[in-house]
């Protein structure tokens, strides 16, 4: 019996593998590899938090060979919150430090944008490194994301680059006064308040704020009133009667322009004879100001009000529109003339 038992024991100890006994190894991919390291650190520090982390990690969803747990989601949200908060705080700190430098407004804005781009790029790379995301596994996704950026966000990136270029060449900068046409086609002007990532903020005299894409200001023609000089010339049109003294009228026009506080002494105001109009002689008063953001219509109003007072004091009247009426000779007209002539003196009937 012993001779029979030994072979049986040997056979049971080393069974021959059958065709169905081969095990298939399943490799589970972990999209957020850093979550396991953070879970290990948490479990080493505290058993309670370690149990919570293990419980959250056990609540997982399998998509193919990829496993994504509730713990992974919590780690991603926490890391994103910390990284974004740190990047935002660093950007604000850099902005405050640059405000204390001697850079002008344009150079400071350009430096702030460049520093912000570097800070956010570093924040994204640090977040990816902390989460342990394998970028090679996201090759297809990154390609699709890059294609979406190329088609859907090309205007956004175009406006970003356009804003940086505008700040670099200083053709458009905060504080400049530029002229634009609104949606109704009415020509107006406004002052640039800020140059953002996407658009330029332009505020008009009636406190309407226009958001103009940076790309439009770079590729379209822009009328900048303060690009190389802040001096702006204003034209005031005046018509005086033919019978008045032209030299005296010119002196009164110059006096009215000089009396306005915002009108510059140099260049001095000038008066040009523009044309001979239907009801009088047309003049143009040219005067210069250096603060167009304060408005130009109010300067014209002050000049005209002062001129009105000076003309009345010197006996110069504002001409009224004159029209000549020509009547063709006809039989009915002759009868009317004869009837008027034959009317007795003192008869007021028509």
Give an overview of the whole structure.
The protein has about 350 residues and is an alpha+beta fold. The chain folds into three domains: about 35-150, no CATH class; about 160-225, SH3 type barrels, CATH 2.30.30; about 230-315, Alpha-Beta Plaits. Helix content is about 50%, strand content about 15%. It has helices at about 1-15, 35-45, 45-60, 70-100, 105-130, 140-150, 155-170, 215-220, 245-260, 295-315, 330-340; strands at about 60-65, 65-70, 175-180, 185-195, 200-205, 210-215, 225, 230-240, 270-275, 280-290. Helix 2 (about 35-45) packs antiparallel against helix 3 and helix 4 packs antiparallel against helix 5 (about 105-130). It is elongated. Residues about 1-25 have low confidence and may be disordered.
Outline the secondary-structure elements.
Blueprint: H1 2-13, H2 34-45, H3 47-58, E1 60-63, E2 66-69, H4 70-99, H5 105-131, H6 139-152, H7 154-169, E3 177-181, E4 187-195, E5 199-204, E6 209-213, H8 214-219, E7 223-224, E8 232-240, H9 246-258, E9 270-276, E10 281-289, H10 297-313, H11 331-342
Antiparallel strand pairs: 1-2, 3-4, 3-7, 4-5, 5-6, 8-10, 9-10
Helix pairs in contact: 2-3, 4-5, 9-10
State the main characteristics.
17% strand, disordered N terminus, 3-stranded antiparallel beta sheet, 350 residues, MscS-like_channel, alpha+beta, cell membrane, 5-stranded antiparallel beta sheet, SH3 type barrels, Alpha-Beta Plaits, elongated
Radius of gyration: 42 Å
Envelope shape: elongated
Beta-strand percentage range: 15-25%
Largest sheet: 5 strands, antiparallel
- The tally of structural domains comes to 3
Mean pLDDT: 77
Write down how many β-strands occur, each being a DSSP E stretch of 2 or more residues. Answer: 10
Identify low-pLDDT runs.
1-27
What percent of the residues sit in helical stretches (DSSP H or I)?
40-55%
Q: Give the number of helices.
A: 11
Query: How far apart are the termini?
Result: 161 Å
- Biggest sheet, strands in spatial order? 6-5-4-3-7
Class of secondary structure makeup: alpha+beta
**SSE series:** HHHEEHHHHEEEEHEEHEEHH
């Amino acid at each position: 019996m012993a001779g029979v038992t030994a072979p049986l024991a040997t056979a049971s100890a080393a069974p021959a593998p059958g065709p169905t006994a081969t095990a298939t190894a399943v490799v589970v991919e972990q999209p957020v590899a850093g979550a396991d390291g953070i879970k290990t650190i948490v479990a080493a520090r505290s058993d309670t938090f370690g149990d919570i982390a293990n419980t959250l990690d056990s609540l997982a969803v399998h998509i193919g060979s990829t496993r994504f747990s509730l713990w992974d989601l919590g780690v991603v949200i926490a890391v994103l919150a910390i990284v974004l908060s740190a990047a935002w705080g660093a950007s604000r700190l850099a902005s405050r430090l640059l405000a204390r430098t001697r850079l002008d407004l344009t150079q400071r804005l350009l430096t702030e944008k460049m520093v912000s781009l570097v800070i956010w790029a570093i924040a994204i790379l640090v977040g990816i490194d902390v989460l342990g995301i394998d970028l090679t596994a996201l090759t297809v996704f990154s390609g699709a994301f890059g294609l979406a950026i190329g088609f859907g966000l090309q205007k956004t990136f175009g406006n970003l680059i356009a804003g940086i270029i505008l700040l670099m060449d200083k053709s458009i900068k905060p504080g400049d006064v530029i002229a634009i046409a609104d949606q109704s086609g009415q020509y107006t002007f406004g002052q640039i308040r800020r140059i953002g990532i996407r658009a330029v903020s332009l505020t008009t005299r009636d406190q309407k704020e226009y958001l103009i894409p940076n790309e439009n200001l770079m590729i379209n023609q822009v009328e900048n009133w303060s690009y190389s000089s802040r001096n702006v010339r204003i034209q005031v049109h005046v018509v005086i009667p033919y019978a008045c003294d032209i030299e005296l009228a010119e002196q009164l026009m110059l006096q009215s322009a000089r009396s306005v506080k915002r009108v510059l002494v140099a260049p001095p105001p000038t008066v040009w004879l523009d044309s001979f109009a239907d009801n009088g002689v047309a003049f143009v008063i040219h005067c210069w100001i250096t603060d167009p953001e304060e408005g130009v219509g109010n300067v014209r109003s002050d000049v005209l009000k002062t001129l009105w007072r000076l003309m009345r004091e010197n006996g110069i009247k504002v001409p009224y529109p004159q029209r000549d009426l020509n009547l063709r000779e006809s039989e009915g007209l002759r009868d009317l003339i004869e009837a008027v002539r034959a009317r007795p003196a003192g008869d007021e009937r028509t």
